[in-house]
Design a protein that fits this description.
Blueprint lengths: L6 H4 L7 H6 L9 E5 L6 E7 L3 E2 L4 E2 L5 H4 L22 H6 L9 H4 L4 H4 L9 E2 L16
Length: 146
């Protein structure tokens, strides 16, 4: 019996279907964390504050189709910009594939289990608050990220 090569190892990001592209998201929601950046050094700090549209239990957007309209700062990932988004988490499948790296063993496409992200503690579930509940972002810096 021959093993079929997975689509993410067989195609470029630009060749993925919409369904394949969406399946790369592991649901960790780390990309939804508010970040602070030192413009002079480029250093990033992550907070435990997320967009008000994020469902804190499922770690998914409550209005995914309209997110970029409702939240103008929300970035829609594309094959083109995935190579430029240095602030994406280093565990993000989009970033990993754009950098020519493999998916981690806990990624649902590898494990076959959507709960593997939670079990491996690569999710923000239970660690974050909404923007509406936060004061200054500087008071919400986290060390558990990355």
């Amino acid at each position: 019996m021959s093993k079929t090569t997975p689509f993410w190892e067989n195609k470029t990001l630009e060749e993925f279907s919409s369904a394949e592209w969406e399946s790369l998201c592991d649901g960790c929601a780390k990309c939804c964390l508010n970040k602070l950046e030192d413009k002079s050094t480029g250093e990033l700090w992550y907070t435990n504050v997320v967009c008000n549209l994020l469902d804190l239990d499922s770690c998914s957007c409550s209005d995914y189709p309209n997110r970029s309209v409702r939240v103008p700062d929300c970035v829609t990932l594309t094959p083109k910009n995935s190579k430029e988004l240095y602030w994406m988490p280093n565990t993000c499948a989009y970033r990993l594939l754009a950098e020519g790296k493999p998916l981690p063993e806990w990624h649902p496409l590898i494990s076959g289990d959507p709960d593997s992200v939670l079990r491996s503690k690569h999710t923000i579930r239970g660690r974050v608050i909404h923007e509406k509940d936060a004061d200054d972002l500087e008071n919400h810096l986290v060390s558990w990220f990355g």
